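Before the break, one more example. Copy the sequence into your notebook; we will annotate it together after we see the structure.
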Amino acid sequence: MTRDRHATQDLPPETRDGPSPDARPHFRLGVICILCSAFSFALMGMFVRLADLHGDTLPAIQKSFFRNLIAFLIAAALFIRRTDGSRITMPRQGWPVLIARAAFGTLGIFANFYALSHIPIGNAAMLNKLSPFFVVVFSGLWLGEKIRMRQLLAVIGAFIGALFVIKPTFEIRTILPELVGFSSGLFAGAAYTCVRKLGILKVDARLIILFFSGFSCLASVPFILFDYHPMTPAQIWILIGAGAAAAGGQFGITAAYRAAPPRDIAVFDYTNILFAALLGYLVFNQKADLYSWIGFAIILTMAFRMRR
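Here is what the structure looks like once it is written out:
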């Protein structure tokens, strides 16, 4: 979580449809934008980890508050300054789904930030990218959508790849951060499935974004009040940088999906894993082991196969 991307995650890549690249002249622009977005989210992960090197180790929830607050301010500005004159309404049956989307998304962000603080950021990014596979599972369970055999095999393959990244052991201290990273992908997948349901109910995306951002901020407050860790000026600026990088990622991927069909360019979003691994090596001297690279390769292969 989670790593959460708001506007870009309103409809997960694997659930969108669109014309082929040849039918859209802005395909290259879409690829450039989604690459910029992937790099921005990798920067966010770097900042989250970097904050602990300039003062006391900060709780993941305290870090996520800054990311969510900046996202909320941006979402509120866009919500207030909408110029199309549309009236935003919410069907009664949409409220439970909206709350579930916000709750799952918030848990995904908390889990992702915890993982980013305790395991190599490339591993955290990879485990968070399991979310599309969970979308397939939850869409079948909750929305009654048919799961094709190709998708089912891709999900099974992705979970096998995740085992290589997690490297299960009997030491809870060693495996816990990896399992939390795995859960960030699970919670994110659940949140995206809720967003898909909200799309079916014709709930305005701006309301979804604003509600989620506000919910995430409020959910962080009790934890911060009871377990606030004083921050150095450097940590404050680093976390502001994390929020700004996350916002840049959101705008980049939104622009990408406006320029080209998501189903044709979404797979390029997995470059976030490569960017995160590169930054982890350059900034923190983090080196993925052989098993992690095997897991990366398996999950990426399954992602390509599921989108064919």
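Residues 1-24 have pLDDT under 50 and may be disordered. Residues 36-82+100-306 form one domain. Try to locate both features in your own notes.
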